[in-house]
Design goal:
Elements: E1 2-3, H1 5-15, E2 20-23, E3 27-34, E4 37-39, E5 44-46, E6 49-55, H2 64-73, H3 77-96, E7 101-103, E8 107-111, E9 117-121, E10 137-138, H4 144-157, H5 164-169, H6 172-220, E11 242-249, H7 252-264, E12 270-274, E13 280-287, H8 290-303, E14 309-312
Parallel strand pairs: 1-7
Antiparallel strand pairs: 2-3, 3-6, 4-5, 5-10, 7-8, 8-9, 11-13, 11-14, 12-13
Helix pairs in contact: 2-3
């Protein structure tokens, strides 16, 4: 059994932030949101989570995993690619020999009888950061029918009989009940009358406060004789959560120069901010559709920049 523990750790870290992590030449791990649910058979409550799956068809390198490995292990991008290839080569060899490849905290891979790759995810990890600290909870089943049957059995064994003599012996109970009903109705009517008066008082107070505020606003209104001309500023709106990274620069002026170069080539290049390493990130363009972003990424890697990669990030937050 081959265990790729280190690579699995990097992939697990990325799955908390991204919906797709591609292992070049091997496949892609995908996460999908799942709402909270209840298992009726086991009475278990599950918090919101992200289900983990694997797609063998997505093998094209998008640079995400390689760049992360390079940053964590402080090596070059090319060395990181080679390390990933070493992992996938060992995994492919073990699978061909009929063994199971385990990715810690993620799942295990094996080949079926038809030599197709099978992935079985583990359910120990919840990649939904919004559910951090929440765990599954199992509750004992409440069977109300048992209690009902118990009461019915007790009534059969010890029935309660009210004889005429007992009713006549305590006639004051009837009048006490009538008096209690009268007091309850009287108290309820008084409470409704009190609530009505309170509502009328509150409405009158609110009207008076609104009038005072309106008068103060009118008194504070003034006119500017020579107003300044209005300035219309057009700010380009960032659209899409899929960004093709062209490069990251320590100096902002270098990033601006890169944007000018790419715009001259026809790209919609722009800055998307500073990453956690203090580098100014420049993108070729941003896309709302992941499939379109991946298609453009392949074209750019083939014709423009082999080191370009895809960043999945919501810039509106």
């Amino acid at each position: 059994m081959f265990v790729s523990m280190q690579l699995a750790t990097y992939i697990k870290d990325l799955l908390y932030r991204y919906e797709c992590v591609i292992i070049p030449g091997f496949g892609a791990f995908l996460t999908q949101y799942q709402s909270a649910r209840i298992d009726d058979e086991t009475n278990t409550f599950y918090p919101p989570s992200k289900s983990l799956s694997f797609n063998r068809q997505l093998q094209t390198n998008d640079g995400l995993l390689a760049n992360y490995v390079a940053s964590v292990e402080k090596c070059s991008y090319e060395v990181a690619i080679q390390k990933i290839r070493n992992y996938t080569s060992k995994a492919a060899l073990q699978l061909s020999e009929g063994e199971t490849v385990v990715f810690k905290h993620l799942g295990e891979f094996s080949l079926n009888t038809e030599k197709s790759l099978q992935f079985t995810p583990f359910e120990t990890e919840n990649f939904n950061t919004a559910s951090f600290g929440l765990s599954t909870y199992t509750s004992t089943k409440v069977n109300r029918e048992v209690y009902k049957e118990t009461v019915e059995n007790l009534e059969e064994k010890a029935p309660i009989h009210i004889t005429p003599e007992r009713r006549a012996f305590k006639p004051y109970l009837k009048y006490a009940a009538v008096g209690l009903i009268a007091l309850t109705l009287g108290g309820f009517g008084g409470m409704k009358l009190y609530e009505s008066k309170v509502q009328k008082h509150n409405f009158a107070a609110k009207q008076e406060a609104d009038n005072r505020i309106e008068n103060q606003i009118q008194e504070a209104t003034f006119v500017i004789e020579n107003p300044l001309p209005a300035i219309k500023v057009t700010v380009p709106k960032q659209k899409g959560n899929y960004h093709i990274i062209a490069g990251a620069f320590r100096m902002e002026e270098n990033a601006v120069n890169k944007i000018e170069q790419l715009n001259k080539k026809g790209y919609n290049a722009k800055l998307i901010g500073v990453n956690k390493y203090g580098l100014h990130q420049v993108v070729y363009a941003s896309y709302e559709n992941r499939r379109e972003a991946l298609q453009q990424l392949r074209n750019i890697k083939r014709t423009e920049n082999e080191a370009a990669w895809l960043l999945v990030k919501d810039l509106s937050k």
